[in-house]
Amino acid sequence: MSAVRTLMTGLVLGESPRWHDGRLWFCDWGAHEVVAVDLDGRSETVVRVPSFPFCIDWLPDGRLLIVAGSDRLLLRQEPDGSLVSHADLAGLCDRPWNEIVVAGSGNIYLNSIGFDMMAGEDPSPGILAVVTPDGSARQVADDVAFPNGMAVTQDGSTLILAESHASRLTAFDIEGDGGLSNRRVWADLDAAAPDGICLDDEGAVWYADVPNKRCVRVREGGKVLRTVDLDRGCFSCALGGADGRTLFMTAAQWHGPERAAEGTRTGQVLAMEAPSPGAHRP
């Protein structure tokens, strides 16, 4: 197995990594920054986001989208660098919003975990929503157990969701109008807690796992292909690099939601060679 190398240190809590325009972009939740870093570790803060949590992806035309989770807003960065509202999500769910993935069709999939974890609320079911290119937003799935990372298959036919509190990856067919149907278990993951995910071109999913301090590659059905053990919680992962074969992982010490935003800088961006390149999206 390829060795894991450290690309960046000194982060608070890295999340939502995406390979874009020759660099890895990610969100440092604790520092409230969207950061871009190249393969030599040179980084810059692209934009500051006061929300917690927040996650990123891009529209097909290249404009950056930011889920401002605690503000219940989907933001869009304009060419002049300003942030404007792309969609108001509060009418769909008044609890914080979490992850995002943009399909090749331009449909934007988002999820809300259904409770305010940072405020200490008891868990309750979450939802998935779609924002279509005409700007309308609607719920497309409910009763999901802490929805987390999402990915869309290369042909745009399937959305795969990590359900952290159900220890599984769940798949949906994507309908022509952006709706989701044919919900099914893509992989049971035993005692795992899948967080961020990404797809490779062999159809396997990498999932990050915070409590088990690892990143795992699995096939549909749950067969484990590779496990990368770390010394701290793995929050998210992405495939990228010049040939798409670099697996990036964001990791940090996790001491519970009550201490998540305290600013302890144990966060890292790690990288290693993967057996297969990434298959967008993300």
UniProtKB/TrEMBL annotation:
Q: Which residues are involved in binding a divalent metal cation?
A: E15, N148, D195
List the keywords (alphabetical): Metal-binding, Zinc
- Residues binding substrate are N98, D116
Gene3D superfamilies according to UniProt? TolB, C-terminal domain
Co-factor remark? Binds 1 divalent metal cation per subunit.
User: What are the protein's GO molecular function terms?
Assistant: metal ion binding
Q: Name the coenzymes or cofactors required.
A: Zn(2+)
What protein is this chain from? Sugar lactone lactonase YvrE
